């Protein structure tokens, strides 16, 4: 557990009988589900920041049905077999984090998210609670020691460039997944009067691009429960009139997934 550092004083955290603590006696207990809460209350922007439990349960239902399995499998092929440590930023309920752990059996795999409900779900489903470590934490103030991660993954999540640079090793791999042009395009056309193209983010400061991949495929969702789950796990849910949402759930979704997968190395 020597990759973790205290979110209050930035000293290394050491494991003890209750959880982890630093030399300044800041103690962070391990929850019964197995995760740590490393998000100080003064760093919260609301009482329960991040996605709501309902959104996270919908995300789990949809992902476990296999619709984004091609993305998980493709990301697994990118993982360097020698990696000893991986950090998944914005892990949510842990679907992709578990996928990384499957192909890196020797690595310490960390997942963080600002949403406690997601981290709780992820930790409960972790098969090896000593090797798979989940924490409630901010991606803008990562609770990890300098140069501790061989791989950092970021799927649809924000972060701070300086923190990525600080935490990743000098030869580490940064993997960022963003939506590409046609991702859920038909669904967006049904919801918005004007459909805006997804913007490809620039390379994080301090990193150089070392590869980019595009992954596209058909997305056919024909059961009402899974249509509702897809809508609930996306930002669309906040903009959808009830009548249109009921129509989409009843008629099904015929669309496509389209991801850009960008690879970077630390400069």
3D architecture notes:
The model has no long low-confidence stretch (mean pLDDT 92). Helix 1 crosses helix 7 (224-232), helix 2 (69-78) runs parallel beside helix 3 and helix 7 packs across helix 8. The strands form 2 sheets. Strands 4-7-6-5-8-9-11-10 form an 8-stranded mixed beta sheet, with helices on both faces. It has a 3-stranded antiparallel beta sheet with strand order 1-2-3, with no helix packed on it. It has helices at residues 53-64, 69-78, 95-103, 116-125, 161-167, 185-191, 224-232, 242-251; strands spanning 14-15, 19-21, 27-29, 36-37, 85-89, 108-113, 132-136, 149-155, 168-179, 207-221, 253-266. The chain is an alpha/beta fold. The protein starts with 13 loop residues before the first strand and ends with a strand. The longest helix has 12 residues, at 53-64.
Query: Strand order of the main beta sheet, please?
Result: 4-7-6-5-8-9-11-10
Structural class: alpha/beta
Q: What does the radius of gyration come to?
A: 19 Å
**Low-confidence blocks of residues:** none
SSE ordering: EEEEHHEHEHEEHEHEHHE
Strand fraction equals: 25-35%
DSSP helical segment count: 8
Topology:
Blueprint: E1 14-15, E2 19-21, E3 27-29, E4 36-37, H1 53-64, H2 69-78, E5 85-89, H3 95-103, E6 108-113, H4 116-125, E7 132-136, E8 149-155, H5 161-167, E9 168-179, H6 185-191, E10 207-221, H7 224-232, H8 242-251, E11 253-266
Helix pairs in contact: 1-7, 2-3, 7-8
């Amino acid at each position: 557990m020597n990759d973790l550092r205290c979110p209050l004083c930035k000293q290394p955290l050491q494991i003890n009988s209750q959880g982890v603590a630093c030399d300044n006696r800041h103690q962070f207990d391990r929850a019964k589900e197995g995760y740590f809460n490393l998000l100080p209350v003064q760093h919260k922007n609301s009482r329960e920041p991040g996605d709501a439990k309902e959104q996270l349960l919908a995300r789990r239902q949809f992902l476990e049905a296999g619709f984004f399995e091609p993305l998980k499998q493709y990301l697994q092929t990118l993982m360097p077999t020698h990696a000893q440590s991986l950090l998944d930023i914005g892990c949510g309920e842990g679907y992709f984090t578990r996928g990384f752990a499957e192909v890196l059996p020797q690595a310490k795999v960390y997942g963080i998210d600002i949403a406690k409900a997601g981290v709780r779900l992820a930790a409960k489903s972790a098969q090896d609670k000593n090797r798979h470590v989940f924490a409630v934490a901010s991606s803008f103030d990562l609770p990890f020691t300098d140069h501790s991660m061989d791989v950092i993954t970021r799927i649809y999540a924000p972060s701070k460039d300086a923190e990525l640079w600080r935490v990743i090793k000098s030869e580490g791999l940064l993997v960022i997944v963003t939506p590409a042009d046609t991702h859920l395009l038909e669904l967006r056309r049904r919801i918005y009067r004007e459909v805006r193209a997804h913007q490809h983010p620039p390379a994080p400061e301090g990193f150089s691009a070392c590869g980019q991949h595009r992954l596209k495929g058909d997305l056919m969702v024909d059961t009402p429960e899974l249509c509702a789950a897809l809508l609930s796990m996306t930002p669309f849910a906040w903009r959808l009139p009830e009548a249109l949402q009921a129509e989409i759930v009843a008629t099904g979704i015929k669309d496509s997934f389209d991801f850009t997968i960008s690879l970077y190395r630390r400069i």
